[in-house]
């Protein structure tokens, strides 16, 4: 359906913070097709950053039902590729009252402007 590995380039001045968005809508649409009914709600979002990057702020909520998660970060060395994992918890209401997890790994290359 969609890849579990994503890639992007963050272009920033050395001291600037940067912003990352993961759009889970395609994955959620596919999961809904698989279960055949119900809804899926993202109930939380965690970020795991490789050494050298700092999590400044994030929100575990979706963007008005658009299934996006957000991370504000800082740090990184010009030309270096880092791994960032976004783990969501979600509730497939048609299946269970228990939350499940799904991860996406994002490869981020830091480039100075």
Global morphology: elongated
Strand arrangement, largest sheet?
1-7-6-3
Tally of helical runs: 1
Unreliable segments of 5+ consecutive residues: none
Q: How much helical structure, as a percent, in the residues?
A: under 10%
* Element-level helix/strand string: EEHEEEEE
List descriptors.
113 residues; mainly beta; 3-stranded antiparallel beta sheet
How would you characterize this protein structure?
A hairpin with a 7-residue loop joins strand 6 and strand 7 (100-112). This protein is 10% helix and 57% strand. The longest helix has 11 residues, at 25-35. It is mainly beta and 113 residues long. The chain is built from one helix and seven strands. It is elongated and about 45 Å long. The termini are far apart.
């Amino acid at each position: 359906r969609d890849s579990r590995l994503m890639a992007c380039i963050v272009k920033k001045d050395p001291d600037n913070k940067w912003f990352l968005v993961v759009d889970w809508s395609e994955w959620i649409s596919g999961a809904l097709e698989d279960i055949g009914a119900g809804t899926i709600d993202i109930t939380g979002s965690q970020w795991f950053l490789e050494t050298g990057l700092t999590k400044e702020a994030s929100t575990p909520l979706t963007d008005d039902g658009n299934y996006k998660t957000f991370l504000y970060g800082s740090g990184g060395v010009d030309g270096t590729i880092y791994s960032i994992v976004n783990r969501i918890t979600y509730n497939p209401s048609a299946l269970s009252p228990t939350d499940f997890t799904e991860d996406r790994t994002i490869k981020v290359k830091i480039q100075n402007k």
